[in-house]
Target: NAD-dependent dehydratase
Amino acid sequence: MKKILITGGAGFVGSHLCERLLNEGNEVLCLDNYFTGDKKNILKLLDNPYFEMIRHDITEPYYAEVDEIYNLACPASPFHYQFNPIKTMKTSVMGAINMLGLAKRVGAKILQASTSEVYGDPAVHPQPESYWGHVNPIGIRSCYDEGKRCAETLFMDYHIQNKVAIKIVRIFNTYGPNMNPSDGRVVSNFIMQALRGENITIFGDGLQTRSFQYVDDLVEGMIRVMASDPSFLGPVNLGNPNEFTMLELAQAIIRLTNSKSSIIYMPLPQDDPKQRQPDISLAKERLNGWKPYIELEEGLGKTISYFESLL
Ligand code: NAD
Ligand code: UDP
Ligand code: UDP
Model:
């Protein structure tokens, strides 16, 4: 039985990862400060004696003896990470230092949840891991993008300087049950608006694109990366390459919810990337043929059912 630490475990992705790793017979320690996470997401795990929930902010040191660490703690939606940009940067940078210090002390393997945002508003399409990105260092998204880039640097330097066993995954837009319904991300916004019969708010002309991955495919990828050959550190893209415009997403959600909502157009936020699509050749090659299986309509169906249960 492995002891696994998951930071941000009460959040959307973290809660799915906690459940999956517990079901596989591991002992799971979940650290979260509940900034964007919710106890509801892990309520059903609390009866399991091999699950431990600890309220802790990873910008502060933390001591425990563990075998593996998944570092997910960080607000992920623009609305939440821009709420206190300095804190977002501290979480990415000081959080990474503390978790890497812990990994170094106990000899644990550590995986960083990085992001497609390290590519910024990409000039190369689709984005392979070799692309260095196009990121504004002083814009409203910078606290998140540059914080995650700095964390990648720290992971690589702890590996080179201190021989820490690291893994870096670059996650592309992911959705599913346990998303925070009020975090302002496009999938949660559109579904909640459609279910409530409110106007669907498209920012800009709606022709910007994203590639949406269902959470189960991501969790499978993260677990395979953690178990991969020690020489394979990443960074590796995990995402679903099927690309959609925000207008197509809105239309799909209106159809799947049988909603009477209308689409309205609002100003595009500053530095909003125009397009995003992962090149997942590396993941397919190095992770025993990993690829996403759940396509948008099926994943949206499961997500809509979850959001309906909240109303
Ligand atoms: P989320 O907001 O649901 O989860 C983040 C969790 O981290 C929350 O439970 C929050 O309370 C916790 N947290 C935030 N700051 C903390 C701190 N200082 N100390 C302790 N806990 C803290 O977001 P998510 O979508 O589940 O994202 C999880 C990770 O995956 C994040 O690191 C995010 O950057 C990354 N990621 C997610 C996506 C996506 O589309 N969901 C895409 C790229 C990267
Ligand atoms: N740290 C931690 N838990 C541990 C070991 C270290 O939180 O089990 C923190 C520690 O507080 C330090 C950071 O991780 O600030 C980096 O540790 P490292 O050993 O790399 O650096 P140093 O302690 O020399 O600053
Ligand atoms: N978006 C939108 N309406 C909304 C929320 C978001 O049109 O109510 C757009 C947003 O401008 C962006 C895309 O949807 O172009 C994805 O936004 P999200 O915040 O989900 O993720 P990110 O921009 O970080 O990829």
Summary: The longest strand covers residues 109-115.
